[in-house]
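Need a sequence for this fold. Nothing fancy.
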């Protein structure tokens, strides 16, 4: 990209949206850097950021960028933490920050949906629903400051029965690479009263083209919301032994598949629970991975399990009672399993640890990043696993062995959907320690390769590793990558929308390879 082209584009954009909505210079661009970068911050820096105030301005920005051939990088709130945050895939891109488009356009309390703009955070949506009487719940992820749109588009998840966020998208408004504004599904009908209620519309379903993609900029989204249940039970089960993992997963699978457990069930190891309330130096002052006896001390001092399962149950009390009976008897044969169940009804105060299961956003999960000190960083390694004991054990052993070899603790666990597990291993490191950052990157690449060799791939990744992960999806000479590139070229002929996102490069970037 020629600098002068970029300068001309920025001048044109500035004229279009106003000087105050153009950000330049190190201080103004600080919020657009990855706050948890594994030592790669300088390789993923933006040239400028622009903050459109309307869909029309988004469209104008894209047209100007396409005219000058200037790369853009779209963010909604930029809280994609562990995956690069707001930082662009390529250095020098212009961030399109959609934070000003923050209207909750509509909430329908009878039909259970909202239409929102990309700048709406989980806190914003929660507050709006509360103002309306709290009859609807939004599903929220661990941290509530991100956008509902960005999280759903990235296939993020929360912990209510509506926790598979991308599954609950219904209808998008999108700006394509030539600036055209399109609505998908029933929303394509001007004046439609139905676009956020039925995905089964007329013709091909195109919403998926805009998930984890660089095919367009989403400017409105329909999202389904859950009717507030009569009651909610926050359930926890602790298991004392590391080698109970396979047994737990095999018991959990039919409970999730049958719907006895209605929401994501999160199985966390003791380090993950410990890191929620303490830092590592409380337990261990040495270097290298924590010895096993230290983990046992965390378990006994905090009165937790080696494995800790958490999920919510929802509905009338009687139905919750049935579900609890079924779940108790399913886990009855697991030695040392301990149950802790709290029941809530509308108006009850929630304990902080239970709130995300009831769709209440928070920020307490941020503490974990400080495990190794105040300047902590993290990388999320996120392969999908079958919900089968031997697969979960294989993934756990693989990740733990590689982590220990590289001097890291295994911090993580499995979030159980109905037919799959999201295995999340957070590589926690200190940003002040350059050698540790380098080691974290080495470990990440090793994990991608080891997982691929066992037949597992990641569902999401940090900007620094998007090409590495793309490379494992290689069936029939990388046919899917080729198809994605064809679609990209058709929808974004100038190749300006988030080039390289998820390893999809437009032809204009054929020379670009992995940036490190
Ligand atoms: P959040 O603040 O919700 O965590 P981000 O704004 O960081 O999410 O977005 C995560 C990723 O999703 C971004 O890096 C970008 O690739 C993509 N994304 C976010 N918002 C949009 C959007 N409105 N249209 C298209 N892609 C988006």
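Here you go.
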């Amino acid at each position: 990209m020629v600098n002068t082209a970029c300068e001309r584009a920025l001048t044109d954009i500035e004229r279009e949206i106003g000087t105050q909505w153009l950000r330049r210079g190190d201080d103004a661009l600080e919020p657009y850097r990855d706050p948890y970068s594994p030592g790669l911050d300088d390789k993923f820096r933006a040239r400028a950021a622009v903050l459109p105030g309307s869909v029309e301005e988004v469209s104008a920005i894209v047209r100007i960028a396409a005219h000058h051939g200037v790369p853009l990088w779209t963010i909604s709130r930029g809280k994609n933490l562990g995956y690069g945050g707001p930082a662009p895939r390529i250095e020098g891109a212009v961030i399109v920050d959609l934070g000003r488009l923050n209207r909750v356009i509509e909430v329908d309390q009878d039909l259970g949906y909202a239409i929102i703009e990309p700048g709406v955070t989980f806190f914003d949506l929660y507050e709006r629903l509360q103002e309306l009487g709290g009859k609807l719940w939004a599903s929220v992820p661990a941290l509530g400051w991100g956008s509902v749109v960005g999280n759903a588009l990235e296939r993020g998840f929360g912990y209510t029965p509506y926790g598979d966020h991308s599954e609950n998208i219904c209808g998008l408004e999108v700006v394509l690479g030539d600036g055209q504004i399109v609505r998908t599904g029933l929303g394509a009908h001007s004046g439609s009263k139905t676009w956020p209620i039925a995905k089964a519309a007329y013709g091909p379903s195109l919403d998926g083209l805009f998930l984890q993609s660089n095919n367009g900029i989403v400017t409105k989204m329909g999202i389904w919301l859950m009717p507030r249940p009569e009651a909610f039970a926050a359930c926890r089960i602790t298991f004392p032994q590391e080698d109970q993992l396979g047994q737990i997963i095999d018991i959990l699978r039919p409970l999730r598949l049958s719907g006895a457990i209605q929401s994501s069930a999160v199985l966390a190891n003791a380090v993950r629970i410990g890191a929620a309330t303490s830092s590592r130096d409380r337990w261990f002052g040495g270097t290298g991975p924590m010895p096993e006896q230290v983990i046992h001390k965390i378990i006994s001092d905090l009165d937790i399990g080696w494995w800790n399962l958490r999920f919510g149950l929802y509905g009338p009390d009687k139905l919750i009672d049935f579900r609890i009976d079924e779940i108790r008897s399913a886990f009855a044969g697991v030695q040392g399993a301990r149950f802790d169940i709290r029941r809530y009804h509308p108006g009850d105060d929630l304990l902080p640890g239970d709130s995300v299961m009831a769709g209440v956003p928070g920020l307490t999960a941020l503490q974990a990043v400080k495990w190794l000190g105040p300047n902590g960083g993290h990388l999320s390694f996120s392969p999908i696993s079958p919900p089968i004991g031997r697969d979960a054990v294989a993934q756990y052993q693989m990740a733990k062995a590689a982590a220990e070899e590289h001097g890291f603790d295994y911090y993580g666990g499995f979030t159980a959907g109905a037919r799959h597990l999201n295995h999340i291993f957070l590589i926690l490191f200190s940003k002040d320690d350059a050698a540790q950052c380098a080691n974290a990157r080495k470990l990440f690449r090793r994990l991608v390769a080891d997982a691929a060799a066992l037949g597992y791939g990641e569902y999401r990744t940090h900007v620094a590793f998007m090409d590495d992960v793309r490379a494992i999806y290689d069936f029939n000479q990388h046919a899917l990558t080729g198809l994605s590139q064809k679609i990209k070229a058709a929808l974004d002929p100038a190749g300006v929308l988030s080039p390289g996102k998820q390893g999809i490069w437009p032809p204009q970037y054929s020379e670009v390879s992995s940036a490190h």
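For context: The longest helix spans residues 434-454.
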